[in-house]
Amino acid sequence: MTQEPDQAPSGGEPARDSAPGAAPAPATPSERPVAVRTKGLTKAYDGKVALDGLDLEIREGDIFGYIGPNGAGKTTTLRILAALLLPTRGRAEIAGIDVVKEPRRIKELVGYMPDAFGVYENMTLLEYLDFFGAAYKIPKPKRRRVIEDVLALTDLAGKRTDPVSAFSRGMKQRACLAKTLLHDPAVLLLDEPASGLDPRARIELRELLRELQRMGKTIVVSSHILTELSTICSTVGILESGKLVAAGPVEEILRRVSAHREFVVDLLEPGDAARAAAWLQKAPGVERVEALDGSVRVALQATEPQVAALIEGLVAERIRFTSFREERADLETAFMTLTKGQLA
Ligand SMILES: Nc1ncnc2c1ncn2[C@@H]1O[C@H](COP(=O)(O)OP(=O)(O)OP(=O)(O)O)[C@@H](O)[C@H]1O
Ligand SMILES: [Mg+2]
């Protein structure tokens, strides 16, 4: 069963100045209230399960990266959270409000940006935003101010009189995001906002999401692979065939997939590489050492104190180095590992 309500909330003017989540979030993640919670969330289309018992908890102020391959169930989840689609079973809440019981309040709280921009013929950007501002029942004088705010935020002020149909993909994405921000939602649900963007546009999007996070918003952003967004996500969830295969802080996920850690030691004297390699080979926790030209690569399964001991040891051996750095596994690797079911 599919619910296709109108895009805009109709419960009066959304409180732009007192939206939940507008205050800066406290420092420790566990102290922050839960912004998005799902419990056993399940969706079947014609009996075929697309989302299978999803348990999610996303805290206020988080940027949550929702990663999964095609058909994993990302869009399904986001549409349920935006109260645009009814779940088959289970619960979903935004700021403690049930998405099925109170869809109108949910639409005030969330800004949902779909993965495709609809067609709007012969409409300037200003008309487009005004149209949705009116749909959100933002009164005219305030609407003008709000539109100027979102235009500035999305860096589209210079395009206000241009027809949206003539926009490039990146500009359409930004116009769509501007529209999504009109009613000042506390929670943003962005479905693959980075897809099809060039590297510069991706960087700009990242900056924009950071800015929105600073404004106190909670952001859920889906992607096939979070290559570009991984640096800004505080937490991630990896979805495969409707099931969450891993979720948690980015660092934790990366640690779970990297059975061992890799460090590179750049030596001051390239001639020290063999001596450094020989010493490291015998150190506790070291699994593999490779002497390179002027540096040494070390693979280890070690705790933080053991890593510190390695640094102390090298210094004690008078092996002088200019850097000792960890080569981080990236989310892409994590994603590939996890979705291949390699994780126990
Ligand atoms: N309206 C629908 N009717 C029937 N099946 C659907 C419908 N929408 C989605 N599905 C199915 O549900 C599953 C999950 O789809 P969904 O669009 O949520 O995945 P996704 O993770 O967003 O994928 P993509 O990365 O391709 O956007 C897929 O198997 C898809 O075919
Ligand atoms: Mg999708």
Which SSEs are present, and which pair or pack?
Layout: E1 34-45, E2 48-59, E3 63-67, H1 74-81, E4 89-94, E5 97-98, H2 103-109, E6 110-113, H3 125-135, H4 140-153, H5 169-181, E7 187-190, H6 199-214, E8 218-223, E9 235-240, E10 243-249, H7 250-257, E11 261-267, H8 273-281, E12 286-291, E13 295-300, H9 304-316, E14 321-327, H10 331-339
Parallel strand pairs: 3-8, 3-9, 6-7, 7-8
Antiparallel strand pairs: 1-2, 1-4, 4-5, 9-10, 11-13, 11-14, 12-13
Helix pairs in contact: 3-4, 4-5, 7-10
Structural commentary:
Strand 12 (286-291) and strand 13 form a beta hairpin. The chain is elongated. The strands form 3 sheets. It has a 6-stranded mixed beta sheet with strand order 6-7-8-3-9-10, with helices on both faces. A 4-stranded antiparallel beta sheet has the order 2-1-4-5, with helices on one face. The chain is α/β, with parallel strands linked by helices and 344 residues long. The longest helix has 16 residues, at 199-214. The protein folds into 2 domains: 29-249, 3-Layer(aba) Sandwich (Rossmann fold), CATH 3.40.50; 259-328, Alpha-Beta Plaits (2-Layer Sandwich), CATH 3.30.70.920. It contains 10 helices and 14 strands. Mean pLDDT is 86; it is low at 1-26. 31% of the residues lie in helices and 26% in strands. The structure holds adenosine-5'-triphosphate and magnesium ion (MG). Magnesium ion binds at residues 74-75, 115, 191.
